[in-house]
Design brief:
208 residues, alpha+beta, four-stranded antiparallel sheet, three-stranded antiparallel sheet, 4 helices, 7 strands, 50% helix
């Protein structure tokens, strides 16, 4: 599942609706219209929902020429693709988001954030599954009506909260542990290599 069509059809299936061949805006089918209407909102919400490892990036922020009037001394522009700022370089640094800028007291601020992407191929199947449920939550009432739609929406939210999102977070955490384990192994290998190099060096003249 790596295209908008795949995710939209997943959402429609969760709502008990038939799949569609195309979600081009020119298609007048009600299911297509509803998916297109809520697509961007659902896509961005799903990607912002959690600290997905493949969406986290870091950047040195550009300082804004307009400093805060009070509270903080410096203002930095958020990247255009920033969905959700996470933390500055040092986690004890205080900061506050104000629209498209971040206020802080620190010079040379560096930010870790969740980035936006239109390329769904960058996302794993667990993130896309969350995206399908998020879209279904938006379209289920418009498609099924208030009574049936709200009942199914409650069921879908429970599935997302209790099953889908925890599984996705678990896989996300495993990926982080694997990455950290690789870094530890690389560091150990580098340390061992330095030790071997030191032990194999030719000793200098000894003073008796």
């Amino acid at each position: 599942m790596s295209t908008k069509t795949d995710v939209c059809n997943h959402a429609l299936a969760l709502c008990g609706q038939a799949p569609q061949q195309s979600f081009d805006p020119s298609v007048k089918h009600v299911s297509v219209r509803r998916c297109n209407e809520y697509w961007e909102r659902a896509r961005r919400k799903a990607m912002s929902k959690y600290r997905w490892r493949n969406l986290i990036t870091q950047v040195a922020l550009a300082e804004s020429p307009t400093a805060p009037l009070f509270g903080y001394t410096k203002s930095y522009l958020l990247p255009a693709d920033c969905l959700r700022p996470l933390n500055l370089q040092y986690k004890d640094q205080q900061w506050s988001r104000r629209g498209s800028v971040i206020h802080t007291n620190y010079a040379g601020a560096k930010l870790e954030y969740i980035r936006d992407t239109q390329n769904l191929g960058e996302l794993d199947e667990y993130t896309l599954d969350v995206m399908g449920y998020t879209l279904a939550d938006y379209i289920v009432v418009p498609l099924l009506g208030p009574e049936k739609g709200r009942k199914l929406a409650r069921e879908l939210r429970k599935e997302l909260r209790e099953d889908v999102l925890p599984e996705a977070r678990k896989i996300n955490a495993i990926q982080r542990l694997e990455s950290d384990h690789l870094k530890v192994n690389q560091t150990s290998w580098q340390r061992a290599r330095r030790n071997r190099y030191s032990s194999n060096r030719i000793a200098g003249p000894q003073v008796l």
